[in-house]
Amino acid sequence: MHHELLSRRVFLTLPVTLLAAVDTVCAADLKKKTLDAWQAYVQLTEERIASELDSRRGFLMQDFKDASEAEKIRAISASGKPYIARMQTRNQANNQINVQDGIVHHRYGSIFIPGAKMPDVLSWVQNFDQYEAYFTEVEKSKMVSHNGDGFDIFLRLTRTKLGITVHYNTDYTFTFRHHDNARTSGRMISTRIAEIEGVGTRNEKEKSPGRDSGYFWRSNFYWRYLEEKDGTFLECESVSLSREVPFGLGFLFRSFVESIAEETVENVLISIRQGVLRKL
Question: What's the pTM?
Answer without folding.
Answer: 0.89
